[in-house]
Design brief:
Keywords: Membrane, Signal, Transmembrane, Transmembrane helix
Shape: rod-shaped
Strand content: 25-35%
Distance between the termini: 122 Å
Mean pLDDT: 78
Oligomer: single chain
Radius of gyration: 36 Å
Largest sheet: 6 strands, mixed
Length: 187
């Protein structure tokens, strides 16, 4: 048997029927703040329920649960699911629709299969997006500000040009007028 890399847990329990239940969860798992995060574990194909808690104390903090009903239907429940903070794939992996710093925590996952219960813990690390992944929310206002500044500078340049032209033309007209006056006085 090949053993996993560091941080992967293999849990084997044998029941009265000698059926093995395997639960593999890598820890830590990294999710990016502001994006959808998926906390993946590799669950057995056959299970009765998978339960996620956002605490090591399983008597509280139920996040979400997926159960296979006797009718064959799948039921998803839990306060985190009902509040829209969490969701769950049919394979049991936990979905965090929008990761926040709040999700930087340790989760406990429990798999229930017939008379067997298997638990694992997963440390989830919520990280800031890298610079190239960030949405630059200020890029449009910054671009608009640059354009406005360029327009103001161009308008100021045109205005200074007009003022210079008017002053030069005014001097030319004054000189011309003076020449006419001087010419008419000399006649």
């Amino acid at each position: 048997m090949k053993f996993p890399s560091k941080g992967v847990f293999y849990i084997f329990l044998f029941g009265l029927t000698q059926k093995a239940v395997t639960l593999e969860c890598q820890s830590p798992q990294y999710v990016i703040i502001g994006e959808e995060g998926i906390v993946e574990c590799f669950f057995p194909n056959q299970f009765q329920a998978i339960v996620w808690h956002d605490s090591l104390n399983v008597t509280e903090a139920l996040v979400t649960k997926i159960e296979k009903q006797d009718t064959g239907n799948i039921k998803v429940s839990g306060s985190g699911y009902e509040d829209g903070i969490y969701d769950i794939f049919l394979n049991g992996s936990l979905i965090i629709p929008t990761v926040t710093i709040y999700h930087n925590r340790t989760f406990k996952v429990t798999v229930i299969d017939e008379n067997l219960i298997v638990n694992a813990t997963v440390v989830v690390v919520a990280t800031e997006p890298k610079d190239d992944q960030k949405e630059y929310k200020h890029s449009f206002p910054t671009a608009a500000l640059v354009i406005i500044i360029l327009i103001v500078v161009a308008a100021a340049g045109v205005l200074l040009g007009v003022i210079y032209y008017i002053r030069k033309h005014k001097r030319f007209l004054e000189n011309r007028k003076m020449k006419k006056l001087h010419y008419s006085k000399n006649k």
